Amino acid sequence: FAGAARVNQETSLPYGDAAEEYATMLKNTLPGHGLDGCCALLRIDRYDKSLSRYGRGGVVEQLMHVANCCRSTFRSEDVVCQINDHVLAMFLVDIDKDAARIVLNRLRWNIRNHRINFGGKEDFSVTVSIVFGAIT
Fold first, then answer.
1. Of 3, 40, 30, which Cα lies nearest the Cα of 18?
2. Among 13, 20, 79, 92, which has the minimal tally of Cβ within 10 Å of its Cβ?
3. Environment class of residue 133 by beta-carbon count within 10 Å: exposed (0-12), middle (13-18) or buried (19+)?
4. Tens of pLDDT along 76-118?
5. What is the 3-state secondary structure (H, E, C) of the chain?
6. The model's pTM
7. β-bridge mates for residue 132, sequence order
């Protein structure tokens, strides 16, 4: 999948259509290997307020912060794709729904507590809402 996905040049993340292709690939692959998987959607909270205050570049910077938190928290085989300027899709492989609930809640907490220098503030906090489900 690594070389096949169409990548957004601005964020270096695979586009949303890649997320759909990856979900289909996992649906076809995981059961044959006896593995579970989950797909999570992470939405940046207060998007409209941030867009009006910081502009598109600011919300993309927040999105990249969330993507970097995902990459540093999870394994390299767990793929992060960009759906739009404020939503990411994340695919977790070899994890059941109960374990995914725990690690995604930790991720949400980690993102909220990882303060960044943004918008003239030295301790800016980005928050996200997460929904997820099993890949079946």
1. 3
2. 20
3. exposed
4. 888 999 999 999 999 999 999 999 999 999 999 999 999 999 9
5. CCCCCCECCCCCCECHHHHHHHHHHHHHHCHHHCCCEEEEEEEECCHHHHHHHHHHHHHHHHHHHHHHHHHHHCCCCCEEEEEECCEEEEEEECCCHHHHHHHHHHHHHHHHHCCEEECCEEEECCCEEEEEEECC
6. 0.90
7. 40
Look at strands 128-134 and 121-124 and give their pairing.
unpaired
Cα 110 to Cα 66, 68, 75, 105: the distances in Å are 10, 11, 16, 9
Nearest residue to 87 via CA among 119, 124, 40, 50: 40
Angle at 106 between CA 126 and CA 113, to 5 degrees: 35
Report the alpha-carbon distance of residue 5 to residue 16 in Å, rounded. Answer: 10
Task: Name every residue whose Cβ is closer than 8 Å to that of residue 13 and which is 6 or more positions away in sequence.
Answer: 7, 67, 80, 81, 82, 88
Q: How far apart are CA 22 and CA 60, in angstroms?
A: 23
Closest C-alpha to 89, from 48, 57, 135, 126: 135
With CA atoms as reference, report the closest residue to 110 among 54, 67, 53.
67
pLDDT, greater one: 73 or 128:
128
